[in-house]
What does this fold into?
Amino acid sequence: MSDGGADDKIEIVKGFIAPVRLRYTVNAGRASSRFLRGLTEGRILGQRCPVCHKVNVPPRGACPTCGVPTEEDVQLGEVGTVTTFCIININFDAKARELPYAAASIVLDGADTTLFHLIQEVPVAKVRMGMRVRAVWAAERGPSLESIDHFKPAGEPDAPYDSYKDHL
Amino acid sequence: MAADDETLTAPYLLTYDYRRSCGPVIGRFLAGLRAGRIEGVRTAGGRVIVPPVEYDPDNGEPTGDFVAVSSTGTVVSWAWVVEPRPNHPLARPFAWALIKLDGADTAMLHAVDAGRPSRIKTGARVKARFAAERSGHIRDLACFELEDA
Amino acid sequence: MSARREVAIVSYAQTSFAPHTKLNDAELVMEAVTAALERAQLPRKQIGFCVSGSSDYLTGMPFSFVGALDAVGAWPPIQESHVEMDGAWALYEAWVRLLHGDIDTALVYAFGRSSLGDLQDVLVAQLDPYYLAPLGVDPNSLAALQARALLDTGRASERDFAEVATRCKRTAGGAPLDAPYVVSPLRAHDCPPVNDGAAAIVLAAGDRARALCKRPAWIRGIDHRIEAHSLGARDLTRSSSTTLAAVEAGVHTAPIEIAELHAPYSHQELIVKEALQLGDGVRINPSGGALAANPLMVAGLARIGEAAQQILDDNARRTLGHATSGPCLQQNLVCVMEASS
It folds into this structure.
């Protein structure tokens, strides 16, 4: 604490906490709203690009490759292929799963882009590229990706590498 | 929540506590406020800048020695706030003012607790009201008040 | 100095500047970009350089400009840049990029959705974090301090403010002086509305511009200047940065017919007009300017686009677009455009 004395005795203020608190009402836009509504209804929706015909999921209303609007909704299957994955050993928040758990990029059947989600009901050491997985819906669904609780092994033979190599 | 048939909206609070480091010039000024005094810095050209900055806004030259200035000054411009916002320094209607403190060559922005708009004008004399509890922050200056109040 | 490459605006498009949009950033940008490219008949894959202006704080989404790129199609990988500023500064970057000479076209776009948050809170985040932001001083209040300073000089009155507002906003009932103050001396009619929107401009150089457009708006000069951030360190009633940018952009070498000024507050139009030394014969803000619609990060680019459109439409031969940024006209850009001689 400074006593207001000579300059060399002044203890300068090194820093302070400057909180930012900003309130928004975020707006999902058209495409994401349709996707989120679909999840509420237990459906996974993508959008097909009118130019390259690829199906993007989650859809954003535009094809990121071609830069054109996407309008055509495509309902996707609940089964897909793990293209890559990681093992999480650190707890991020209270809602997190029991450690360690796996998160994966999954290309759903009928889709051309990958969805990021959790893999459960299998030891993490057994999660692998090419693994076939199925969505497990949450008991209560809403307009959120949390409507899918996790993905579990689909009990199918692994997909061959060539079938997903373009989605890495 | 559904805003209408087509798009979904949701409330979102963005919150983050930045830790601002002050450096020797701002840190010294804020330490002064904590001690209940206001200081500026003198430029090579002899002007006194309050609140102090590291470099002369006119030419980018480093500023020099600290100079104590008065906690009393003159209103250079003002604006009357009819409805204060939650993050404003005062909860009742007040004036923002650019205040040139005696001994300073630049004006500083702060709130003036003037009561009603008819009591403040350009040229009005105001004095600093320090907060009772101070931590080394610009809000250690609670506000300014009219000198004749 | 060697002769500069000639660069022109060959098309301009914008979304509606509504109080609120239901689109996300990519959907909003898509509308403006698609329209601008269609007007120029330029396929996306032929764009040489792409640059945008926006601010993440408006929607509270970090790196939101990356998502908006979906509206352009960034594959195969494109040459792209972004400024956390009004799109007018993105246009400046595109102009410089075209002067390099290796590409002939550029796409500039800007987007902003101000309606998702409260601008009076959000814009505090642009202020000096030590002396100003902790006071919570909002943009209306800062503008009001500037307006009062201007009134005190005797160079303008509240009636002058109202006249600007009446002309720009074209609202029934005009701008009554007995209306209550928002922050005195500013009334609601002196302050900008909150708008969402996007705008896009296609630039082209030399013969490519002539091929894409019957009547390109040639950029004859463009310059931007900034002043000190601290309000107490500058004369708020004069815009020295505008004056200097105008000289550098060659504003005074020939008469300007139409000027689009980015003045979000009514008194700021008076300050900018004076700083540009525009004569009485100049038509100011036929679009209504930022007082009529103020999509943040877009309104400045829209001034340049509107001024260019007057040339593209053969309504004028020499126009000026102005953009501002920062509290109380801290930073200013001036762009002078001409039809071919």
User: Anything to note?
Assistant: The CA atoms of residues 88 and 139 of chain A lie 24 Å apart. Residues 29-167 of chain A form one domain. Helices of chain A lie at 29-40, 161-164. The longest strand of chain A covers residues 15-27.
